[in-house]
Structures are given as structure tokens and as C-alpha cells.
Amino acid sequence: MTATTRPKHFPHRHLLGIDGLSAFDLQVLLDMADEAVELNRQVQKRRDTLSGRTQINLFFENSTRTQSSFEIAGKRLGADVINMAVASSSIKKGETLLDTAATLNAMHPDLIVVRHHAAGAVHLLARKVDCSVINAGDGAHEHPTQALLDALTIRRNKGRIEGLIVAICGDVLHSRVARSNIILLQQLGARVRVIGPSTLLPRGIDRFGVEVFRDMRAGLKDADIVMMLRLQLERMNGSFVPSVREYFHFFGLDAEKLSWAKPDALVMHPGPMNRGVEIDSEVADGAQSLIREQVEMGVAVRMAVLEALAQNLPNNGGRE
Amino acid sequence: MTTRPLLIANARLVDPHSGTDTRGAVLVKDGMIADLGPNVQSAPEGADTIDAKGKVLAPGLVDMRAFLGEPGAEHRESIATGSQAAAAGGVTTVVSMPDTNPAVDDPAIVDYLLRRARDTAVVNIHPAAAVTKGLRGEEMAEIGLLKEAGAVYFTDGTRTIANARVLLRALTYARDFDALIVHHTEDPDLAGNGVMNAGEFASRLGLSGRPIEAETVVLERDARLVRLTKGRYHAAAITNRDSLDIASRAKNDGLPFTCSTTINHLSFNEGDIGDYRTFFKVTPPLRSEDDRIALVEAVKNGLIDVIVSDHNPQDAEQKRQPFAEASDGALGIETMLAAGLRLVHSGDLSLPALLRAMSTRPAELLGLPGGKLQKGAPADLILFDPDEPFVLDPATLHSKSKNTPFDEARLQGRVLRTVVAGRTVYEYA
Q1: For residue range A158-204, what is the model confidence (pLDDT) as tens digits?
Q2: Which of A95, A111, A123, B248 could be joined to A55 by an S-S link, Cβ 3.0–4.6 Å?
Q3: By the 8 A CB rule, do B70 and B317 touch?
Q4: Catalytic-residue membership of B189
């Protein structure tokens, strides 16, 4: 089925994770995102799909990039978008997550976008509200819109995902991006590898259906896509890895290590980058880098997700 | 350095690697063993020839644990004096400990030590590097970069990593680099302020004791972490019967778990402290005679892989103190062969079993090519008379420090010649 003939049907109330979505669901979202990319490149970017709808961005962890991406996406579709600044609200003053959910629910939002530092917090909240909930990252669990935007970026550049060798490199242990990507890319037929020091690989990773490498050069060999992960500063001074210079020496992506991948391999990073830690500037800014394009795809994917979920909202007023 | 070929003829060739004990000769060329056996007779043109007069020719000893003083404690020992002591003791390869000042936790210090060794040492020196930064037991050191720089294994020396999570991470991380972690297993809280083995002797002497549980609790914990991580682990000094049970279980389960004991723990027991003799104050402390007997048996059956000298030079100021206040540590590198031969003469160990634990096994664990008499192996060789008796005069020792527990001891077994890479670096005059 080609993109033009595939019906835009997305049979889910929430987007809590990639886990549980079928290959068909994923392709539908990517098709819709493709259309949004075209729209976003016009002067007139507005649509009214979400006109009258209220979207609340509830970010318990700071994230300028993801939050503004969701905000722009909602506004372009005509929704009323409210950003709840958690840091300066009652939530920080000791209100429980469930009380917050009840409070928000009473305001009759249609869509809530949630980021939380605890894995499973978004699921908990979703059970307590009447609207659709989108997971914008929960702990080290899932970050579904990041995986979708990565997939969209890959599909637009390579024309496909099936059969590609994708190497996910670095701090897999703490990465929700890695978990969502592993599920999504395998669902769409890619061969996924993970590369990192054993201290940054979760236990049981070998049972995730991926190939596991502890050596960058071996893991990058013949890769089509090299997906770098961010290493948090507090994890690189002797706790998980000994030092920045050791990490960069063995796991930092520089031109030499990248040369082990296919000549037309493309480099991705969810941002924000630590230049000189997990990635060298020469590679980050080089011809094989898709990092800027990922940001553009982020808005399009979030529009697609909002739109797909809105179709299933009650009182949809007969929109298709 | 090119040297002339060397033929050592008429020798008793004892090779602990193959377990053979035969008459014959060894021909050395370009620093390697070019040929050996009963049929090697004539020396090539221009070769030096030595008549071994039937004495034992064996691979040089490989000592996995010695404190060489550099950098920071050059008044106690230097790489030069430590290596001369090693050569005189028949040790051709020494692993230097990282408890120095500064500690060996930076690739630049490994590089420094290798350069110092190249310029001043007469035997092979391989630095061990720290597992944790500053040996503090908190943050992992740069295991990958240190190994690339030439660190032969990783240890915090005489410090125990009390935090299990730190050791877990280090074992996990080190496995990626196939790096060996060597751990001194004494729980610092259980050891407390103890200065000798806990028990009747300590109580009679009025000294506070260190229980064997300080060792076994950590060792048992470590065995479980090795089971989890499959990281290569070596217990630095097993000193008692209970620890042997733990080692035995770990090994029977096929874990990458090996262990050493020290020549001191095979030679002495807590009673040797006698009249508060501080040269017998070592860490872990000397244990009971029952433990010592068990350790000898474990060397014999291979449960203990390695015998180390635990060579730890201390100056007189550190040792001429009340027992509780004196430093830990004893010289060992120059006397380890003679001390080990005591066990051979007493019938407790065979000569190949002793040499296996002092040469073949440590070389294997460190991934070094020595420790065997074999064509193509490095010509790191010792010629010794296992029977010659002597009384140890500390003044003859090559170390800068003189804290030997074998002071005035009757020993049997004299190193006659030590050869490193085909070059004679020590000859008994």
C-alpha cells in the first residue's frame, strides 16, 4: 500500500509509547507527517483541524526543544495551546501527580502533552483524564515522537526503513530515545544495533532483538544510519564512564570512526549535542549529518500525532 | 639491543608450562629461546657458552605484586634498585603497584613508568594502574586509556573498594577491554584498627585483631559480582582456609576468578610476630598455622594460581615503631624463590608446582609470553642451585630498604644467573 492510498486511520486514544503500535499505525503517522512537512514549507502554515481544541503542554522536566516543537505543532493546527510551567506552579509545591491530573481534567482539555522524569508517570496520568495524552518522554522509558521524527527523517532520506542497518550509539541505559527507536525501527524492518560500553547498556539488552557491540568500529561496520545518543554530564566522571576524554576516544563519533560505516551513511542525534563528548563537530556539521533536518521533522511529526489523535476525540463534529 | 647468541649447556631444564624436568641445553638468539632440549649441543660461531653444571634452568619468575617506590617514595625503593633486587631473586618480570604518589591513575604516569623502566630497570617492568581515581574507591579510572598506555592490570593496591557498586561498574566496564581487575579484599570497617590476625595471639599480645571475615566478606561479595558481570577478577591475596572455600566455589562454577597468595603467608604464621617483630606486620595479616598449611596445599593443587612477593619496602623509621604504629609490608622479591624452595625441600610442593605459581600462571594471567621454556619464548631465564644453603644477611640485599622477615634466616636455593631477553642481568659472584 502506498502512502497516497493508505487510509489515515489511527485507532488509539493516546500516544503513550511506540510499544503497541503496529507497522501500519506507524506508516500512517509518517504519511501524515510527510504532508505536514509540505505544509510547513508554505508561507501559509495554518490549518484548522484542531480549531476549538485545547492542548496543554505539561512538562515536569525542562525541554525547550520538545516543548516549543509541540507548541508550534498545536498552533499550526489551530489549537489553543497552554504551556504549564511546572517549575513555578503548585505542582512543585507538593501536589501529587494525580491531583494535578484531576485539576487539569476539570479544565476540559482535549490533548495533554506530558513529559515526566519518572518512567510510567505519563501512563498513570492518562488513566485519570478524559482527554488524549501524548508522551513527550517519561524517564528512561519512551519518547515516541522522537522515534517517529527519526523514522521520518530516515524514510525521507533513504526512501525506506526496511532492511537498513541502524546503529544506536552511546548511553542506551538512560535513553528513552533509544528504547522507542529500537521498537519502532524493528517494527518497520530495520536491523538495529546498539553500541556502547557495558556500563551504559541496560541488562538484558541482548533480548531486545538487537545486535550488541562494545566496540564502535565493529558496530559501525556497514551501518546505513548512525544514531548518536546524548551522554549526561553527571554520568561521565567515573560513575558510568571514567572521563570525557576516554569516552570520546572510544565512543565519540569522529570522521575516522564514521568511515567504518557505509560511505553514504547518515548521522543523527536527538539533541542537544555534547560536542567533543559523543560527537565531533566535524561530523555533527558535516555533509552526512541529518541533525538539523531532525528538528524540522519534529514539528511535522507532532502535527501528525495531534491530528491523528484528534480524529478520535469525542464531539469531533463529523471531521474525517 | 643485539647480543651475542648464548648457549646454556648441561642444565636441568625445568619447565612448569609443559611440566617437564630434563637434562639439556638452551640456545638463546636475539633475545628469544632459539632451541632447547637434550639434543642441543654445540654453540654457533661467536656464541657465549655457559656450563650450567647440572643446575636448574627455568623460566624467570613473574611477580604480579611489588611496590617499587616510583613515583614518590624513592627513598624506600626505586625502579632501578627494585629491579636489581628482582634480578638477584630470579624475577625477570615485575608488576609495579599503583599506590604511589601520585597514584598511577593517569595514562601519562604509566608512560612515565615505562620510560623510567626502559632507562633504569634491568628486568621487565609492567605497571599496574588504579581501578579508581586517586585509589579513593569512588570513581572509575580511565581503564581503557590506561590499558592502551600499557597498564598490565588494574588494582587499587592495598586498598579495598568498599562500595560494591563501584566495583560492579568497574568489572562491567573492564570486561569490554578484557582488562583484569586485581582486588585486595579486606573490608576496612571489619579490619578496623586491627594490626594482626584476630585471635588468641593478638589477645595475648594486647593488640587489636583483624578477623578473617574482613577478607571473606569482601571476597564472597566479589565472587557474586564476578558471577554477575563475568569480568576478569583476581584476588590479590588469599590468606586463610575460608577464603579458599570461596575461591574453590567460584572456580568450580567456571567464573573468570583467579587468586594469589603471598610468599609471606606461605612462609609464616601469626606466631612469628613473637616479640612484636614489625617485619612480620603485613596486610592482610599473617594467619594461623592451619591456614598456612591450607594455602600450601592450595598452591599444590592449583586452587591458588599465583604466588606473589608482595614486595613492600619500608624504611627503618616506618618499621622501628611500636607494633601497632609500624607500617605494613615486607621485602620479598629477592627471597621469594628461596622461601618457596623451603616448601619444595620439605616435600610439600614439587619444583614445577612452585615455578608454575611463580612464573607460568602469572604470565598467562597477564597475557605475557614468558613463563615457559619453549622455542620462540622470550629468553627470560634463571639458573639456580636449589640446594645451596645460606643464611640471609640483609646487608647483601639489593633493595634500598631492609625490612625482610628472613633476616638471618637459613635458606636453601641460590640464584646463580638471571637472563632477561638473552642478556645476563645478574650473576652470583
Answers
A1: 999 999 999 999 999 999 999 999 999 999 999 999 999 999 999 99
A2: A111
A3: no
A4: no
Residue A266 φ/ψ, nearest 5 degrees: -115, 145
Is B139 within 8 Å of A241 when comparing Cβ atoms? no
Cell of B408: 638471618
Residue A214: list chain B partners with CB under 8 A: 176
**B140, A197: Cβ pair inside 8 Å?**
no
Residue A319 confidence (pLDDT) above 50: no
Assigned domain for B186 exists: yes
Q: What is the pLDDT of residues B200-225, one digit of tens each?
A: 999 999 999 999 999 999 999 999 99
CB B110 within 8 A of CB B142: no
Contacts of B102 (CB under 8 A, 6+ apart): B71, B72, B109
Query: To probe the interface with B, which of A243, A249, A251 has the most B CB atoms within 10 Å?
Result: A243
Residues of chain A found within 8 Å of residue B138, distances taken between Cβ atoms: 238
> Which tens digits make up the pLDDT trace of A231-256?
987 777 778 999 999 999 999 999 99
Instruction: Quote the minimal CA–CA distance from B126 to chain A in Å.
Output: 22
* Euclidean distance between CA atoms A152 and A156, whole angstroms: 6
**CA–CA distance, B285 with B198 (Å, rounded to integer):** 9
Q: Is B289 on the interface with A (CB under 8 A)?
A: no
* Domain limits for position B209: 61-366
Is B393 inside any structural domain? Answer: no
Q: Rounded to an integer, what distance in angstroms lies between the CA atom of residue B112 and that of residue A247?
A: 23
pLDDT tier at B165, thresholds 50, 70, 90: very high
Query: Does a structural domain hold residue B323?
Result: yes
Mean pLDDT of B367-394: 97
The closest CB to that of A243, out of B142, B169, B172, belongs to: B142
- ipTM for the predicted complex comes to 0.90
Cell of A155: 524514510
- B188, pLDDT greater than 90: yes
Q: Which residues contact B149 (CB under 8 A, 6 or more apart)?
A: B107, B108, B110, B111, B114, B129
In a domain, B297, yes or no: yes
Phi and psi dihedrals of B35, rounded to 5?
A: -165, 160
In three-state secondary structure terms, B88 is helix
Number of H helices, E strands in chain B: 14, 18
Find the CB nearest A237 among B139, B175, B229: B139
From the DSSP assignment, how many helices (H) and strands (E) are in chain A?
11, 9
pLDDT band at A320 (very low <50, low <70, confident <90, very high): very low
Write out chain B residues lying below 8 Å of A238, CB-based: 132-133, 138-141
Q: Which three cell numbers stand for residue B26?
A: 638452551
Distance, in Å, from the CA atom of B248 to the CA atom of B252, rounded to the nearest integer, reads: 6
Contact by Cβ (8 Å): A305, A29: yes
Q: What is the mean pLDDT of residues B184-199?
A: 97
Number of folded domains in chain B?
A: 1
